[in-house]
Amino acid sequence: MESRAYLLQALSPLHVGTGRSVGVIDLPLMRMRATGIPIVPGSSLKGVLRDSRKHDSDKARSDAIFGPRREKPGPEGDQPGEYAGALVVGDARLLALPVRGFVGTFAMVTSPLLLALARRDWGGRMGGGEVPGPVAPLAKYQARVASLKNSACLYRHDGQPRVYLEDLDLEVENKDDSVLASWAEVLGRALPSEERDMLMRRLVLVDDETMSFLWETATQVDTRVSINPETGTAAQGQLWTEESLPAETLLMGVMAATRAWHPERKLEAGEVLSEALGGPGTMLQLGGKATVGRGWCRLLSWQSGGSEGRR
Amino acid sequence: MRNDLRGLSQALEDGPAHAGLAHERYAPVKDDLEEKESPWRKWLQWMEEARVPRDYTVAFSRWRESLRQWHTASVTVRAASRLLVGHGNASPTGVGLTLHHTWGVPVIPGSSLKGVLAAYLRAAFEPAEVEVACRRLFGVPGDRLTGQGATTGEVIFHDALWVASPVKKEEKTPLMLARDVLTVHQKTWYGGATAWPNDYDSPNPVAFLSVRPEGRFLLALSVAPGADAESVTLLRWAGDRLCEALSQCGVGGKTSAGYGRLTAEGEVVVNPPRAVSRPSPVRDEFKTWLDAQREAKTEQRKVLEDFESEWLRRLSTLPLGAREECAQAMRTLVKKNPKLQERRDDLLARLLAPSTSNH
Lengths: 311, 359
Description:
The complex is a heterodimer. By secondary structure, chain A is α+β, with helices and mostly antiparallel strands.
C-alpha cells in the first residue's frame, strides 16, 4: 500500500458542518471528537473527487479508482460488489489557521500537536528529503516564529516581541526557530513559488492550549438571512449563523492506494494516487453552501516522489 | 479595547492592519466630544486610513487564476456610490460592515449577490418568462405533495472580492473605507412611541463606516467543468442580469437612498475551463537541465544537439500540455538567432506533433 500526503487550501470560507447544534452557532463546523480539531471528512473529499470525473469518458478507470457505484441508494443497495475501490482518502485536519491580527493583517497559526499529526501523515518520510523534525514544546501563552527579522506579524514593545491575535497578546520567544522555518519551507513546496514567501512570513507557532482556544473562537461566523419574497422581511425562522474555516486555511491529510481491484482495468498504486491528486483540476468545491461560493478549495500535493511513503 | 493594544500605537499609526478586526475590537466608547478631543471621532478617522494589505495582490491573482479552472462568467464592477453590506452585523458603531474575514478588505458575499439576482428577476420579468431559468439558477425545495424532488442551483455565486490594483513599491495602496453619517430626526417615533412624529426631537447623528465609491469588485459565477452548452448560456445570461440588477437596484443596505450601485466595466466574459499544469518529473527534470545550460552558458548549437539526442524521445511521451511548457522553456533559452531558429522550430514541431505512442 502506498500513501501520499495532501494539502487542502481554502480560497473561500469552508463550511463542512454537522448540520445542527445546541450551542450559540446554529451551524457549527465538524470537528474531531477527541481533540476538537476542525476536519473535512475523507468521505466528503472522496465524493467530490469522484464527482469531478463524472464527465470522463473512461468510466472503468474512475470505477477502478473509486470503486463500483451502488445500484440502489440506501441499505438495500448494500450488496457485495465485484471488486473494491483502490483509493483510501483520509480526513483532512486543520494544519494552520489564519487568525486576524492587529499587526500584519493575519497570522497562519499552528501548534506542536498539529505539526506532530502532519508528521504522521507523511509517514516520517518524504522521498525528496527528510520530514522536518518535531518542534520544541512551548510554555503556556507563548509563541514562536521562524525568523524574528522576516515575520510580518511581530511588534516589539519595550524590547519584547509580541503577536497580537484577535483577543490574545502572546509573547514571542526572542530567538528564531529553525525547525519551524524548515516546516514552512517544506509546506511551501506544495505551493506555487510566489505564494511561499507569504507562508514563511506569517507562520506562527503557539502552544496547544492557545491553539485549541483559537480554533474554537477565531473561526469565521456569518449571519445569514432568507428573505420572504411576499413580505420583504426575514422568513419565519430563517435567520441563522454559520461557522466556517476562513479563506487561507490549510488542512492536511493522507491518501493511500492499493493496486486496482478492477478485473479489466489494471492500475498500480502509484498511478491511482496520481490520478486522484491530479484530476481534471485542482479546484474543488467542498462542504456546504456551495452555490453561494463556500468551500472553494485547492487540492495540492508535493511533487510526486516528494512525499510518498510505502507501508 | 484592551490595554495591551495601547502600546501598539506606533504600529497602528498608518491605519489598521486588519480593518475588520479593528472595526470589531478596537473601538473606544462612543462620545459627544468635539472633533479634536474625541477618541471616538479619532478612531473613525483612523479607520478611514485602512488600506489594502500588501500581500493581498498575490492572494487576488491566485483567486482569479483559480476561477479559470471552471466555466466562469466574470466581470469587474465599480462602485458608483457608497456601499454598505452587512449593516445589521453586530458592531460598536451600531452599523455593521462586511469585510473579508482573513484580509479585511471589503467584499460582497455570494449569498447577497444570489439574493439580489433573485429579487431582480422577480421584479423585472413575468414569472412565466424566467421560471425555468430561476429553477436552474436557484434550485427548488422538494415538495412531498406533488412528489417533486429538491434540486440544487446549478450556478455558484462567488463572493465578489475587492480588486487589487497593482501599486509601485513606494506608493501606498488605495484606501477602502469612508466615514459616513446618518441623522435620525424623529427618534421617539422610530423608538416605538405612541405619539406621532414631530419637530421637537433633537437630531441624532449616527456615524459609521461604508465602502468608498470607486472601489472595484470581481464578480464571478461558475459552473463545474463538463457542463453542456446550455448551462454555459445560462451562466452568461445570469451574469448579464446580475450586472443589470447591481446597476439598477444595487446591493447591500440603504439602496433606497442610492447606496450600493455598481456598474460593470466592460462585458461579462465567459471562460471555458483551462487545464492546470500537473506535476511531471520528466518535465521538471528537463527544465532543470535547461536552467543548468543557461547557467553554464552552453553554446546554443550544442543545446539543440543534446535536446535532439537525449530529450526529444523522452519528452514525447508527455501529455500535450506538458510538452507545450517544455517547448516554451526551450524558446526562452534559444532566442532569436537567424542561424539556429529554423533548426529549433523544426525540433519543437517534432516535439509538439501528435504523439504516436498511445499511452
